[in-house]
Amino acid sequence: MTRGKAKPPTYLDGLLVELDEIHNAYSEILDTSGIINIDPNRRGDGVSYLGSPAWGWRKSDNALESARMTLLRRLHDWEPRFRLLFPHPTPDVSKRIDEHIGRLTA
Question: Residue 81's domain spans which residues?
Answer without folding.
Answer: 11-44+52-105
